[in-house]
């Protein structure tokens, strides 16, 4: 199954591991898609290109442009880029607070959103709010719901 579109390709992995950006240009977007987060990070952070192998600044700039042109053919690259720009330390801190709040109050189904650290000021239901939100809000809603479900399962298992 390896190598099919959607599955990580050993060939692409070897190219990335070797830092051979020029050969990536010849790969189909479907073969690159599993490596998209890494490619986006590589394109945005020149230091990742320099760390992969010793290069000059000119070579690094050329490789960066090549990686940008490679990922430009993949529409999902913009979504990956927006998720990589999130403030993960703040998100983690809020998730820890949410988990503590759930332990204290319990995973009540109808608990008001005002008692949530991650899912604040919801005007609509969870599904509609998720569909209409930006990527940061979506991640916060997802984490809130996931932590609520985990808390509910943990509570039910501990009383069994």
UniProtKB/TrEMBL annotation:
Top-rank taxon: Eukaryota
GO biological process: snRNA 3'-end processing
Pfam families reported in the protein's UniProt record: INTS2 (PF14750)
GO cellular component annotations of the record: integrator complex
Residues in coiled coil: none
PANTHER family: INTEGRATOR COMPLEX SUBUNIT 2
Protein's recorded name: Integrator complex subunit 2
Species name: Geodia barretti
């Amino acid at each position: 199954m390896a190598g099919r579109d959607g599955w990580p390709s050993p060939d692409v992995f070897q190219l990335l591991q070797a830092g051979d950006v020029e050969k990536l240009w010849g790969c189909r977007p479907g073969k690159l898609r599993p490596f998209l987060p890494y490619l986006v990070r590589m394109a945005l952070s020149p230091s990742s290109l320099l760390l992969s192998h010793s290069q000059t600044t000119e070579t690094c700039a050329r490789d960066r442009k090549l990686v940008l042109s490679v990922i430009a053919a993949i529409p999902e690259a913009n979504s990956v880029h927006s998720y990589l720009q999130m403030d993960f330390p703040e998100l983690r801190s809020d998730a820890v607070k949410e988990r503590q709040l759930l332990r204290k109050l319990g995973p009540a189904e109808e608990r008001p959103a005002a008692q949530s650290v991650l899912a604040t000021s919801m005007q609509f239901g969870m599904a509609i709010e998720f569909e209409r939100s930006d990527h940061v809000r979506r991640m916060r809603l997802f984490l809130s719901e996931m932590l609520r479900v985990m808390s509910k399962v943990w509570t039910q298992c501990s009383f069994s």
